[in-house]
Input
Amino acid sequence: MEAILKPGSIFRQAKDIGVIWATEEAAKLGFRSGDSDWVNLGQGEPEVGELKNGSPRVTTFHTEPQDFRYGPVNGMEPLRKAIAAYYNRLYRKDKSSQYTSQNVSIVMGGRLALTRIFCSMGSIRLGYKTPEYPAYEDLLNYQSGRIIPVKIPATKDNNFAIPPSEFAETITSHHLDAFLFSNPCNPTGHVVRERALKSYLETAKENRCALIVDEVYSHYIYESGQSPAKPVSAAEFVEDVDEDQVLIVDGLTKSFRCPGWRLAWVVGPKDMMEDLGRASSGIDGGPSMPVQLAALQMLKPEWVDPEMTALRTAFRKKHSLMIKSLRENGMSCSDDANSTFYVWADIHKLPPPLNEASTFFRAMLGEKVITIPGTIFDIHPGVEGKEAQFNQYIRFSFGPEEENMKKGLERITSLINAHR
Output
């Protein structure tokens, strides 16, 4: 894709994406972060305060003079070891192949983790499905000419996911070398799990296709009745941690509710982690030492386990409240949308003109409520002037605190009723 320069500048014409674009549009109407008059049902971050029965927020940590030095490009050994132990404890008990610190690369944020991965790749064909996380588009655009992005449309009938029975055909028919997907999925809330996820890994291995699994919402899993005992990760179905080409991206941002810390990690074969470290030397130089020291406190089982139970309890309640309200207002929400903190709602049955995403988005801004039009999630790396899909969908976030979220849902109800 040719980079178009801004007039009189050496910079290309870049664009805001996803949530950033939506909040910029809201800012034109007076929105400011923390403004109690506004409700951000578009936000891509979870509430960050303490949860009932959850672990205390980590607010202090200790550093030594040597911590002011540059650290290892792949992260400090104690934290890498703690992350490996975290995966082994949750997903790999009694398995002969175990993750070690050499299977971990620590990065300052999920998008930077993906940047390291993409910059380490050779000339390949990389598949992705839509709808999908908007940042993938620009991240892949930076690699144009080397990585060929291959769009694979998903359908509503399949909850906008690729069924395991079709995954092999998807890989072979599109000649894919690698496949990238968010799981749980942003924006749809669908999660590939258990036998389906195991089948994905087996199929990819049989067809020599690497998997890049973005698992930043791994703990936000809800079921009717009781919450599951553990989150979901491809790590459970990796056979050999050093041979299977499965790269897992996660971090503190979403599941640990520390978006401002900007700390993430990649877990995968140790030779790939070495490649990511080499890429880091020319991209970011390695993660912050003080932030890593603070993160060590949150990888301890006695901190993780109560916090994640409290997280699922609090967010499952908000999930139920939002689904109920949106359905009562005439929107269609999948029964299979049981993860993340988003609801992917079909609005085509709403009274006109609210049944069109961009109009709904603008109308809700007038009510001081931010939402995200579905068109943003139809990504096309390397393609300009695309005709976007999903104009009958809105992504709603129940990331805000419960009372604030309820206020937003009440405003949605009032606006829709005013158009009936």
Summary: The mean pLDDT is 94. The domain at 18-52+304-418 is CATH 3.90.1150.10 (Aspartate Aminotransferase, domain 1).
